[in-house]
Design goal:
alpha+beta; Beta-Lactamase; Alpha-Beta Plaits; five-stranded antiparallel sheet; five-stranded mixed sheet; 15 helices
């Protein structure tokens, strides 16, 4: 049973074989014309030669135009007819010697190149039979007996046939081995022409994308590239045409089922610059694994920035956000305030009611304070029973109002103390947090359940 590859490759071979046969007819007609223009033996029927040559030329033109529409049996019939016509030309010339025998050589070459040895031998047998008949009928054999001329022809054309069919057979075996390895490769191997169409592909393309090979050849390969990747792909192809080389280019290609497959390409221009040799690997699963890994890593990073108990950002997240907030405030020359909250007498609460009850207080406070903040504000668990609130673009007066509103929202009958500091654009993070912590100490030292505001450092 023919594979899709074989079904597609028959047409170019049939076309070439038919056109070689057509060229043989036209060349034979030209040879007759040249022989009539140059000095030649007299006695032949020149009118018959001219008519025969014209018939050969017309037949050659028709066969060339039909191309691959000429069936295999038709090619055999035409080649047999060429041999018979050449024998007729020899008979009409009146002498069994000269340039018309060259057509026999050409015919033997065509049959030896395009057909197996046994088929070529049948054609050669037909040639020898017709030529032997002509040798018996022609007026002159130019000094040699018909048998001698026939034997010379037999030996010379048999050597030509054996030599050419041997070369073709070795080349076919080498091509078959190369094709075998080509098809066995798990990588998607292909060649493409300068018009952007696939020329050769192995079966790995069908296995990966679902298309038949003739379907892949039917359209320019860039038409099935993802629209977002098409411009990059065209630029990469342009670089190849200028002598570049692709080592690890990735794009998305449309499969027959409508899904997009990630392909990783390596390619280069052929030595004669007529084809692109390319190898593609389907890395769709690898891309999915990488995406899942990145998602997991992001989840891990997010977990590392979150306090496990309250779900609020933790100190690590604060260390990332606070420098960014300070840089933005300096750039925009806006105010930035920081407040540290501390739940009053939390250690005593833990000792009295236990750590589980204490954890519940921490969760409730974090939730209540977070819901009372503005969207642009950030609250983080600073450590233990301490929480830090970051208030961007907030002057001290407004920051104080926000802190008091949060303190009033303290749940579960608890109270808290707070220390507030406004950044002066010059101090470091540690200095700013140190001032807020000092203000908190003052609030706690003053009797707790209150807010204290740190004076500017300078």
């Amino acid at each position: 049973m023919a594979t899709p590859q074989n079904r597609v490759s028959i047409r170019p071979v049939a076309r070439t074989r038919a056109r070689a046969t057509a060229a043989l007819l036209v060349a034979g007609a030209a040879l007759v014309a040249i022989s009539l223009l140059l000095p030649h033996p007299s006695g032949g029927d020149e009118n018959a030669l001219v008519l025969t040559a014209l018939a050969m030329a017309v037949a050659g033109g028709i066969v060339w135009a039909l191309g691959d529409k000429v069936p295999g049996w038709g090619v055999h019939t035409i080649l047999a007819g060429v041999v018979a016509t050449t024998s007729l030309l020899i008979f009409e010339s009146g002498i069994a010697v000269g340039q018309y025998g060259t057509i026999f050589v050409w015919s033997t070459l065509v049959t030896s190149i395009y057909f197996p040895r046994r088929v070529a031998a049948v054609h050669l047998g037909w040639l020898l039979a017709t030529y032997g008949t002509v040798l018996l009928l022609v007026e002159s054999t130019a000094g040699y007996s018909p048998l001698t001329r026939w034997l010379f022809t037999l030996i010379s054309l048999s050597v030509v046939m054996l030599l050419i069919t041997g070369i073709v057979a070795r080349r076919a075996r080498a091509d078959e081995r190369a094709r075998h390895f080509f098809d066995l490769s798990r990588d998607m191997l292909c060649t493409a022409n300068m018009d952007g169409y696939f020329v050769e592909l192995n079966d790995a393309w069908t296995q990966a994308l679902g298309y038949r090979l003739d379907e892949l050849r039917a359209v320019p390969f860039v038409e099935r590239v993802h629209p977002e990747d098409r411009e990059r792909t065209e630029a990469e192809a342009a670089g190849l045409f200028e002598g570049g080389e692709t080592l690890s280019f990735e794009n998305r290609y449309l499969a027959k089922d409508g899904t997009w497959h990630w392909l990783r390409w390596s390619s280069q221009l052929s030595p004669d610059e007529s084809l692109i040799y390319a190898r593609a690997a389907d890395i769709t699963e690898l891309k999915q694994i990488e995406a899942e890994r990145e998602e997991l890593l992001e989840q891990v990073r997010e977990m590392a920035r979150r306090d496990a108990l309250t779900g609020l950002p933790n100190r690590r997240a604060l260390e990332e956000q606070l420098p960014q907030a300070m840089a933005r405030a300096r750039r925009q020359r806006s105010t930035l305030s920081v407040a540290i909250f501390d739940i009053d007498h939390f250690k005593d609460y833990n000792d009295t009611y236990g750590h589980l009850a204490g954890d519940e207080v921490l969760r409730a406070c974090g939730k209540a304070w977070d819901s009372a903040l503005r969207a642009e504000d950030t609250i983080a668990r600073f450590g233990g029973e301490e929480f830090l609130v970051l208030l961007p673009d907030t002057p001290p007066e407004e920051a104080g109002e926000i802190v008091e509103r949060l303190r009033a929202k303290t749940p579960m009958g608890q109270s808290c103390s707070a220390g507030l500091a406004c950044w002066d654009y010059a101090e470091s993070i540690d200095e700013l947090l140190g001032r807020a912590d000092q203000a908190l100490y003052l609030a706690k030292a003053g009797g707790r359940d209150q807010m204290a505001e740190a004076p500017l450092a300078r």
